[in-house]
């Protein structure tokens, strides 16, 4: 499978995934898969939530509908891998990552919509970057699966940012920079538990 050009995502994100997280991912592949399933389900839920909240925007409705379907399909694929490997899908406490980003989102419209879309784009970009960085280090089945996700995840990041640009106009660049600075701190600072979007593990 031809690899997706991820240079736009690498240029967009403020930092690369730390090596310590990569090491933790390889040492905790069961947790990686379980939390990945939770991430896909949450991504679909986020897209559906936007569809319910902003019903007057046909472009948003079309893009989020497609995104939700793809994320649920990915969720089903991860569940199948878990079942095949005898891993029980179970509840996990969420990473501080998404909550940490949303704490900096504005509460009033239209800022709420703009920031929610930017955060969605940031999360999709980081997911894509992490799929790409761990895929070559995993077994053949997981490597092929994670490679297969890159194209859609890269498109999801672009969809979110295009919708944010449409909603915010010239303001979007400043908000993107602000929220990317928050993202960099979350990714590079210590975390006490491993998750797909966790920061640097402080137990290693």
TrEMBL record:
CDD domains (UniProt xref): MiaE
One Pfam match: MiaE
Molecular function terms from GO: tRNA 2-(methylsulfanyl)-N(6)-isopentenyladenosine(37) hydroxylase activity
UniProt record, GO biological process: tRNA modification
Record protein name field: tRNA-(Ms[2]io[6]A)-hydroxylase
Protein source organism: Halovibrio salipaludis
Upper classification of the organism: Bacteria, Pseudomonadati, Pseudomonadota, Gammaproteobacteria, Oceanospirillales
């Amino acid at each position: 499978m031809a690899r997706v050009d991820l240079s736009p995502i690498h240029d967009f994100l403020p930092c690369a995934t730390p090596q310590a997280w990569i090491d933790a991912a390889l040492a905790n592949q069961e947790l990686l898969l379980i939390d990945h399933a939770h991430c896909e389900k949450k991504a679909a839920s986020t897209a559906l939530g936007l569809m319910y909240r902003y019903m007057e925007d046909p472009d948003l409705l079309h893009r989020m509908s497609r995104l939700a379907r793809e994320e649920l399909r990915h969720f089903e694929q991860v569940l199948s891998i878990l079942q095949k490997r005898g891993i029980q899908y179970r509840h996990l406490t969420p990473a501080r990552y998404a909550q940490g980003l949303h704490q900096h989102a504005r509460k009033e419209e239209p800022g709420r919509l703009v920031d929610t879309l930017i955060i969605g784009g940031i999360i999709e970009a980081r997911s894509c970057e992490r799929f790409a960085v761990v895929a070559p280090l995993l077994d053949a089945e997981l490597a092929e699966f994670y490679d297969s996700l890159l194209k859609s995840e890269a498109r999801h990041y672009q969809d979110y940012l295009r919708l944010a640009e449409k909603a915010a106009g010239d303001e979007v660049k400043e908000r993107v920079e602000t929220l990317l600075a928050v993202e960099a701190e979350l990714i590079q600072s210590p975390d006490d538990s491993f998750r797909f979007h966790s920061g640097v593990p402080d137990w290693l």
